[in-house]
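Running co-folding for zinc ion.
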Amino acid sequence: MRKLFLLLLIMTFIISILAPASFAAETDQEKIYKARMDLYSKMESLTLIPWYYYAAIDQYERSIRRVRNDIPKEEGLIGIYFKPEQWSGALNPNPDDTSPFSIGIFGGIGKDGNGDGIADLKNDEDVLYTFASHLLNYGTDEENIKIALWDYYQRDRSVELIMGKVKIYKTFGTIALDKHAFPVPLRFNYSYKNTWGDARGWGGRRIHEGTDIFAGYSTPVRATGYGIVEIKGWNKYGGWRIGIRDINNTYHYFAHLNGFAKDLKVGQVVEPGMLIGGVGSSGYGPPGTSGKFPPHLHYGMYKDNGHTEWSFDPYPHLKQWERAERQAKK
Ligand SMILES: [Zn+2]
């Protein structure tokens, strides 16, 4: 009996040593997501606006901010950016004003969200609460939130992009959506080289805006990340093609397909690895044209900064996703 007790004691001791080690496996990124989610949830209980609206607005602003040079990079957990004069009020002699009272007098939008009596542009809770207050001026339902967003951004596209993210977060119930998949299952025969920026190829625009993955007809083509189907149909150069907007505002373009996955619709939420179509050689002619070049998937990636969209090289990402999948299989 005593032996058993001793054994239990030793086991408990071992477990207590091992447990923190496994908790330590929680990455910095996971900690950030958790802390961010806490902020969104807190705001939801305060305002009755569901957390995924806050997550979507925050993520939209963060992704834009990361590709713009005219606004400072984010420092805290929340990516929403207010200009100092917007925060303190255009006529406020003190652009760094933190007094909710005088900010209010000068028509600034800055608010105190954490109850410390200070409206601090650099405090996550104050920033999120300030945006929440703007939304609350309109209402807590989707239609009113959309109007609030339009009034704030004055751009249809921004509202669409944010609402797309709302749908994605709502579907998966989490903000940890970093997983990716290689567009073609690794067990199929395929080959690709770094051809981005070459003279116009099949499906490019001015230059070759993508990577061509050569594979046989009907090789499965899969979504590479969490996102929303933005475009599906025919394009003179791209043939049958699909455009997916991911959670980071990156647009993924799949061209020259020989068909689409059954039931795939514009506006649909997709996840990495989900079948969206098959490799083909469609394009360079009226709808249905095919066979003018060898079958391949043209894969392009585009960034959006809130004003314009530009192509960047998908090759390093493809390499990385391919490697990650290979390692996960081992
Ligand atoms: Zn191509």
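Result summary
The pocket of zinc ion is lined by residues 201-204, 208, 210, 212, 298 (CB under 6 Å).
Residues 31-172 form one domain.
Job closed.
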